């Protein structure tokens, strides 16, 4: 992945978790921001194939509140992150999103 794309996706993930690009009026989410950026950005970026995440990415996913972050993704962030890939990553890492969870504009159907 190009460094520029990784930086943009990482920045988007940081802003999502920190609350800067989230739905207004909602708080922040807990998690390892730098770890998500470093280890998982490549697995959720647009465009590209769906690829199972690394063990390092899964370790970070397990420490982060992904459902919280999912519920706060704005349309501008969604242009950079593929929600289907987010669902794949969380499922692969043993933290599947519950049926009906809204992740960006996508509702999870298990």
UniProtKB/TrEMBL annotation:
InterPro entries: Bifun_inhib/LTP/seed_sf, Bifunc_inhib/LTP/seed_store, NsLTP-like. Residues 26-103 form the Bifunctional inhibitor/plant lipid transfer protein/seed storage helical domain. Keywords: Signal. It holds the Pfam family LTP_2. The keyword Signal applies. One of its GO terms (biological process) is floral organ structural organization. Residues 1-19 form the signal peptide. It comes from the Eukaryota. This is Bifunctional inhibitor/plant lipid transfer protein/seed storage helical domain-containing protein. It comes from Brassica campestris (Field mustard). The lineage of its organism: Eukaryota, Viridiplantae, Streptophyta, Embryophyta, Tracheophyta.
């Amino acid at each position: 992945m190009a460094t520029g794309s990784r930086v943009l996706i990482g920045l988007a993930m940081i802003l999502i978790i920190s609350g800067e690009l989230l739905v207004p009026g909602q708080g922040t989410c807990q998690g390892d921001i730098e770890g998500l950026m470093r280890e998982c950005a490549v697995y959720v970026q647009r465009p590209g194939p769906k690829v199972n995440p690394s063990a390092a990415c899964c370790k970070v996913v397990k420490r982060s509140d992904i459902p919280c972050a999912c519920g706060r993704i704005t349309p501008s962030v969604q242009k950079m992150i593929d929600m289907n890939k987010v669902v794949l990553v969380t499922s692969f890492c043993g933290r599947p999103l519950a049926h009906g969870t809204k992740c960006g504009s996508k509702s999870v159907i298990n």
